[in-house]
């Protein structure tokens, strides 16, 4: 068997075991206030890390380019509580404008 398939099967087994163990956790453990607070913050932290990595990195290098201006425009739009389509459009337009100027 190829090494790639061993890795795929091993990863699948690990994912299944983790998912099964998550369903096996008692309800009283999950209803603890600290666990609820952590579960609310994990997606926010993961999404923030994804945005940061996708904005300032290309392959294995850190770059400052037009994507950073799009992120800044989106942050400004969010500060002014703009609707989500406006946030996305402002980020896209500012990023495209900076890209065409550079």
From TrEMBL:
User: Has UniProt tagged this entry with the keyword Membrane?
Assistant: yes
Q: Which UniProt keywords apply?
A: Membrane, Transmembrane, Transmembrane helix
The family database entries (InterPro entries) matched by this protein are listed as: Brnchd-chn_aa_trnsp_AzlD
Which Pfam families does this UniProt record tie to the protein? Answer: AzlD
What parts of the sequence cross the membrane? 39-56, 68-93
Q: What is this protein called?
A: Unannotated protein
Report the source organism.
Answer: freshwater metagenome
Q: What is the lineage of its organism?
A: unclassified sequences, metagenomes, ecological metagenomes
């Amino acid at each position: 068997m190829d090494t790639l398939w061993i890795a795929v099967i091993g990863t699948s087994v690990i994912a299944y075991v983790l998912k099964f163990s998550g369903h096996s956790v008692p309800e009283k453990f999950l209803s603890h206030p600290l666990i609820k607070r952590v579960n609310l913050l994990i997606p926010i932290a993961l999404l923030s890390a994804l945005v940061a990595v996708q904005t300032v990195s290309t392959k294995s290098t850190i770059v400052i380019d037009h994507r950073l201006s799009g992120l800044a425009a989106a942050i400004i739009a969010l500060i002014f509580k703009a609707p989500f389509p406006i946030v996305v459009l402002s980020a896209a337009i500012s990023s495209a404008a900076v890209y065409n100027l550079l």
